[in-house]
Amino acid sequence: MKPDAVIVGAGFAGAVSARILAEGGKRVVIFEKRPHIAGNAYDYLDENRVMRHEYGPHIFHTSSAKAAEFLSRFTDWYDYQHRVLGYVEGKLVPIPFNFTSIETVFEKERAQRLESLLLEAYGKDRKVPILELRKHSDPEIRELAEYIFEHVFKYYTMKQWGYTAEEIDPAVTARVPVLCGYDDRYFQDSFQKMPENGFTAMFEKMLDHPLIDVRLNTEAMDHLAVLPEENRVLLDGEEFEGEVIYTGLADHLLNYRYGDLSYRSLEFEVRTEEGRFQPVTTVNYPTPEEEHPFTRITEYKNMQKNPPEEKTTIAVEYPYAYDRRREKGNVPYYPVFTEASKQSYEAYVKVLEPMKNVHLLGRLAEYRYYNMDAITDAAIELAEGLLERS
Ligand code: FAD
Ligand code: UDP
Questions:
Q1: Which among 87, 218, 276, 360 has most CB atoms closer than 10 A?
Q2: Between the CA of residue 44 and those of 9, 41, 88, 199, 271, what are the distances in Å?
Q3: Residue of 7, 161, 213, 247 best suited for mutating to test ligand 1, as the one with most atoms within 8 Å of CB
């Protein structure tokens, strides 16, 4: 029997929209090319009994009651507040750079003075993007901003993106603002919790519905043809008039007709160590590439509810330019936000615009820096909208 909707990808975008459509009585088929569900949030207990996140550390945090409520139907949670330290001039300081960081790197009097200047300029606990801080009218604040820029953002951003912080979208560095206070949490959202048995278990429940058929190890484009010029979709060679929610790469959907979009990739060097490796889950290395050729090290068990004592698993993160043809760096992780790349993406969006039953959704397909909560909200909105109009 033909499905009512075809969804490409079983990550947050695909799974959340599938569940909502299925609950609205729609038959849904999901094509997922990987051998597992959960997209980049995929996790599992590894040989050390550590809950390892295969595609890098994923921490759930949100201020959206809608996303939290929806996901809470499929998991219990435990409290976890993420903390990150950065390696700055041989010391570990809180990131986002806060008053404790200032006091760690400057002598007492200077630190106090800088803190009062920040409090006066912005107010207590305010979060200020580094690029904004660098433009402040007070030269002393600008001097501090230059220090933070040099020691926290400049090299990390170069390593992470292959571009300078000035070349990429300012929203990227604004994700980790300077904090005018002592709050040392990486996120300030009201809901900061991790799924009790991991993300994959949460996805298993979400996708467990009689109207959802998940086909793993299945490249969608072996089954689906999207033909914008003819305003037609073919499913296994036959006309398909149902909804298509596509959460993969926009260029892949249209056979790269306007060229490859620019993505950043990562490689993880995963190692087993004894006991505990570092004081927090993630330590950033915002140092020049020659000093540390990686961006951060994550010790997964530090965010686990019942971590094993003896062994630990760590992942060292190396950014790469994405290239689908290469052996290393062939997984697309982050859209690269330069003006040129945003324009190429727009060409794909434009040609698809007349196709009212084809929807681009998610971090890859929409070429957006979505967190898990934001893509959950977006998927709920899209799927509910489709149900309403059906
Ligand atoms: P994905 O999870 O990438 O899912 C897309 C799925 O589609 C994949 O499984 C892919 O295999 C499949 N697919 C693609 N093309 C095809 C095809 N042609 N045929 C079949 N299947 C296909 N967010 C947070 O909120 N907190 C965090 O701490 C956090 N940490 C992150 C760390 C890293 C290193 C990265 C890269 C992202 C992080 N995120 C985090 C963001 C989070 O990963 C995304 O919000 C989330 O994965 C988006 O879900 P998605 O469904 O859009 O994409
Ligand atoms: N960033 C930085 N130094 C840091 C942390 C972050 O320069 O110590 C910049 C960098 O450009 C990074 C961006 O801020 O890509 C967003 O950081 P975040 O930790 O949110 O990245 P993600 O977890 O999405 O990889």
A1: 360
A2: 19, 10, 32, 9, 16
A3: 247
